[in-house]
Structure formats: C-alpha cells, structure tokens
Amino acid sequence: MSLETIELKAFVPAKNFERSKRFYIDLGFRLASSEHGVAYLHAGDCSFLLQDFYEKALAENLMMHLLVADVDAWWAHVQAQGLSDRYDVTASAPENRPWGMRDFTLHDPSGVLWRIGSNLAHD
C-alpha cells in the first residue's frame, strides 16, 4: 500500500468564467485545459482548477497563496500587464511581513484574494 501523493489543487470560483481565464493567463498562468466548466491552470509546478461556478460568500472568503522565487518580478509583471485597471481589481504593493515573507495581495475578478510572495532570507 502506498500513501504517495501526486498533486493537490483547489477549485477557484469564477463569476465570469471567460474573463477569469483571461485574467489568470495575463497573470502568468498557462491554460492546460478547459472543458465542461473547469479550466486547469498552472505556473511551473503550481496549479489550480478554475470553475464556472460562483457563490459570492465563497469567492470573497477564499484566499490562495502562491510562493514564488522573486516576488518583485511578479509585482512588476502585474503592473506591466495593467491587471488592476484592465480587470477592475485591487492589488497592494509588496511589503516585508513579520512572518518572514515579502508579499503582495491581488484580488481576482470574482473577489478571490491571492497572496503572492517570497520567503525573506534568514540571518
């Protein structure tokens, strides 16, 4: 018997499925597949399933965390893509956090909160 795991993916709700797919592609995820109201998106080894389903309370209480090698490069990409203006979403600039990370927040078009960050070097 093996308890080996392969992958864990969250289902992320989408108020407007096509718009949310475009947002995530512009953010830097690749669309691996999209069938029957579920899109499989990934960036490197990180992935999630975007679903054509929306419940306001779920979307506005869901938080995703993406650990990246260079948070400032991701922030520069978000700014260069104009995601806040193009998708009418909020984003906050990167900050060093007391829990040992540098991160920024970004809401998706459905209200899901993403924290994108890097670990700070430990002395």
What report would you give on this structure?
This protein is an alpha/beta fold and 123 residues long. It has one domain: 2,3-Dihydroxybiphenyl 1,2-Dioxygenase, domain 1. Helix content is 25%, strand content 37%. The protein has four helices and eight strands. The chain is globular, with a radius of gyration of 15 Å.
Order of strands in the sheet with the most strands?
1-4-3-2
Count of discrete domains: 1
**Order of helices and strands, N to C?**
EHEEEHEHHEEE
CATH superfamily: 2,3-Dihydroxybiphenyl 1,2-Dioxygenase, domain 1
Number of strands: 8
What proportion strand? 35-45%
In brief:
The protein is an alpha/beta fold.
Comma- or semicolon-separated keywords:
123 residues, alpha/beta, 2,3-Dihydroxybiphenyl 1,2-Dioxygenase, domain 1, four-stranded mixed β-sheet
Topology:
Elements: E1 11-13, H1 17-27, E2 30-35, E3 38-43, E4 46-51, H2 56-59, E5 63-67, H3 71-81, H4 83-87, E6 91-96, E7 101-107, E8 113-119
Parallel strand pairs: 1-4, 5-8
Antiparallel strand pairs: 2-3, 3-4, 6-7, 7-8
